[in-house]
Design a protein that fits this description.
This protein has 207 residues and is mainly alpha-helical. The protein is built from 8 helices and 2 strands, in the order ααααββαααα.
Length: 207
């Protein structure tokens, strides 16, 4: 990597590298196509940026010389701008991907667990229902991951994305196991509370 790219590399947020990474596979793509691909791959193990973020990062990457773009010709009914990674962009992306210091720890923001943490303010039945709803959503996401895995299975260029999707499949299966365990924990806590209330009711009153 040339020294002229080094300071620019440090200024880019992870979302920019993710967008550039989508362009590192063969072919040119529009912003809309990048969004669709992010929705069917990145979101299962990282996140899918909004379409406005994708276009903002594409502009930034183009300013840096990491991406080039061209408008479609008159053969298309509606003009589209297609983006491609440049040699400089591929070189910078390879350097970033190999830099383990920049990976950082995984960040977990679990909305359900935040509500469980505040379970003393909720009815036990509602907490159990929320866990059940979470499990249904997770099963839906798991089905989507497996569909994406099928699409990537026979494409040699997608061998490494397929590994990430396989990890995501395992993560969703583990999430279902954790939710089952959480239901058992809630039942145990509820039973312990009921036992305490019964003991208090049976205790003789001082007189």
């Amino acid at each position: 990597m040339t020294s002229s790219h080094e300071p620019k590399k440090q200024e880019l947020p992870p979302t920019a590298w993710a967008v550039l990474g989508l362009l590192s596979f063969p072919g040119e793509r529009t912003g809309y196509e990048l969004k669709k691909w992010a929705d069917s791959s990145l979101r299962f193990f990282y996140w899918s940026p909004a379409i406005s973020q994708i276009y903002a990062e594409l502009r930034r990457l183009e300013d840096l010389g990491y991406v080039s773009s061209a408008r479609s010709g008159p053969e298309e009914a509606r003009a589209k701008r297609r983006y491609a990674i440049t040699d400089a962009g591929r070189e910078a992306l390879a350097g970033w991907a190999a830099d383990t210091a920049e990976a950082g720890p995984p960040v977990l923001k679990h909305g359900l667990l935040l509500r469980v943490w505040l379970g003393h303010l909720a009815e036990p039945e509602r907490l159990r229902a929320m866990v059940g709803e979470h499990m249904e959503r997770t099963r839906g996401e798991l089905a989507a991951v497996r569909e994406a895995m099928e699409h990537a299975a026979d494409v040699p260029e997608w061998a490494f994305p397929a590994l990430a999707l396989r990890w995501s499949e395992r993560q969703h299966l583990a999430e279902l196991d954790l939710a089952e365990a959480l239901l058992a924990d809630l039942a145990e806590l509820d039973a312990a509370g009921a036992a305490r209330r019964q003991a208090d009711a049976d205790a003789p009153t001082p007189g």
